[in-house]
Amino acid sequence: MTSVALFISMMISICAMYWGYVQAEYEIASRWILGIGVIWFFAQWQRWNWFSSVVLFAFVLFSAFGLMFGFEFHWMLTGSVFALFAWDMTDFRHRLHLAVEDDDSRGLERRHLARLSLLTLAALLLVSLALYTQVQFTFEWGVFLVVVIVVGLIQLVGWFRKQGK
After folding, report:
1. DSSP SS3 for 26
2. Which of 81, 69, 92, 63 is nearest to 1 (CA)?
3. Tell me, what DSSP letter sits at residue 103?
4. Please, are residues 153 and 117 in contact by the beta-carbon 8 Å criterion?
5. Cβ contact 42:10 at 8 Å
6. What does DSSP assign to residue 135?
7. What is the rounded CA–CA span in Å between residue 150 and residue 86?
8. For residues 112 and 92, is the Cβ–Cβ distance under 8 A?
9. Rounded CA separation 1/144 (Å)
10. pLDDT string in tens for the chain (165-residue length)
């Protein structure tokens, strides 16, 4: 469960940040974001847990730069929030590997993912509300929300099925 949530959050973070920079027509920076994302996936495959901290720092800087120059804030915030989610999931996955067999690792995992998912949902709802009140709610943002909701529901159904076994 943790690995799936980690890789989905990494993908969402990279895509959101990339899309924000593409819309602002910063081609070189968007290529850097994709490059960092590819290295990030490789680092996770190699279990280089420290690299998530580097990516989180880089994506927060990319977001700050984007916000400073007036890029669409919802893509910058989403990229940072999901990078933070992925950073936390990387650390949590590492801590789960260190847990002893007596620990309820499945329960810990479920509760941790539930808390993080609620926090992320709250962030997305606040951003959507801000966009709606400023009449900046775009079609792309609506599609993004639908994709995130569908992925979340698929993951939720998968978790419930595992609980029934």
Report:
1. coil
2. 92
3. S
4. no
5. no
6. T
7. 19
8. yes
9. 22
10. 678 888 988 999 999 999 999 999 999 999 999 999 999 999 999 989 899 999 999 999 999 999 899 898 888 888 988 999 899 889 888 888 777 676 777 777 777 777 777 777 777 777 777 777 776 677 777 777 777 777 777 776 776 677 665
The token pair that represents 52 in the structure block: 């998530």
Please give the Cα distance from 76 to 81 (Å, whole number): 9
Q: Where are the alpha helices (DSSP H) in the chain?
A: 2-23, 27-45, 51-68, 73-97, 105-133, 139-164
Measured between alpha carbons, how far is 128 from 142 in angstroms, rounded to an integer?
9
| Beta-carbon contacts of residue 149 (< 8 Å; ≥ 6 apart) | none
What is the chain's alpha carbon radius of gyration, rounded to the nearest angstrom? 16
Residue 2 tokens, joined:
């943790």
Q: Which two tokens stand for residue 90?
A: 């990387």
